[in-house]
Write a structure and sequence with these properties.
By secondary structure, the protein is an all-beta fold. The chain has two domains: about 130 residues, Sandwich (Immunoglobulin-like); about 110 residues, Immunoglobulin-like (Sandwich). Helix content is about 0%, strand content about 45%. It is built from no helices and 19 strands. Strands 11, 12, 13, 14, 16 and 17 form a six-stranded antiparallel beta sheet that branches. The N terminus is likely disordered.
């Protein structure tokens, strides 16, 4: 099982409290077992959260239950409230009916856990719960950026985010000024793109614009996606790509509207 963690900038100046906003001068010291939280879906599938807090930087586990029938295994995404950190984890159901996913979160803050499910006979939907990583922290802020540097790679994002309308975005990967034409498959595509809106952490719909590659296939330097963002705002885009057997993440900040 793999957990992918994407991080932005952090600073230890404020103290985070569990809830919808930020506050200073308080601290979180969970001493009791994590309470169960239940979030209903329209078709009576509910999420029962068994984990309320994890220690920063330490391997942990996120546990939850699902009531109702689902057609596919759930997918789990965790986003810090300032959209500086995004993590994936792969949950596995135990014999007791509890889903568990290994999860390491690198820094303090309030997080939103999104469990994507496909209820039996119904469209896919997201169920959400809160999670806190206690400790001092300052929420990060981001300026618009369409070029990312990661481990000597340069990654450029082109295309507009148009609220309520499917649009194409393209990423181009280069290294030392030369295009990278041998990107490796990653989870059924040549890249994985997550898009989250700053503020309410709404997730955008994203689909790769290519057929799933064979394990031996290579492509690049460009990767295309069709995306649909739910509303206007500033979005954080987390691109995972694999090259030379190593998975890396490029992060962009893009507002909706035309680049003109």
């Amino acid at each position: 099982m793999r957990t992918a963690v994407r991080t932005g900038g952090f600073a230890a100046l404020l103290v985070v409290v569990l809830g919808a906003g930020w506050a200073a001068g308080s601290s979180i010291r969970p001493t009791q077992p994590a309470p169960s939280a239940s979030v209903p879906a329209d078709d009576d599938v509910t999420l029962g959260a068994r984990t309320a807090a994890l220690d920063p930087g330490r391997p942990g586990e996120y546990a939850f239950t699902l009531s109702g029938r689902v057609d596919d295994a759930p997918r789990l995404t965790v986003v810090r409230q300032d959209a500086a950190v995004l993590a994936h984890a792969v949950p596995v159901a135990g014999p007791d009916g509890v889903w568990r996913a290994p999860l390491t979160l690198p820094a303090a803050g309030p997080y939103r856990v999104v469990v994507a499910v496909t209820p039996a006979g119904a469209p896919p939907r997201d169920l959400a719960a809160g999670l806190v990583v206690p400790g001092p922290f300052e929420p990060a802020s981001f300026s618009p950026a369409r070029v990312a540097e990661v481990d000597g790679y340069q990654v450029r994002l082109d295309g507009d985010l148009v609220p309520g309308s499917p649009t194409q975005v393209f990423v181009t990967v280069s290294r030392a000024g030369a295009p990278v034409a041998d990107l490796e498959p990653l989870e059924g595509a040549f890249g994985r793109l997550d898009i989250v809106r700053e503020g309410d952490l709404a997730l955008a719909r994203v689909h790769p614009d290519a057929a799933p590659p064979a394990p031996s296939d290579r492509a690049g330097p460009g990767i295309a996606f069709t995306v649909e963002v739910p509303a206007a705002g500033s979005y954080r885009l987390f691109l995972d790509f694999r090259h030379g057997g190593v998975q890396r993440t490029a992060v962009f900040t893009v507002p909706t509207g035309s680049t003109g």
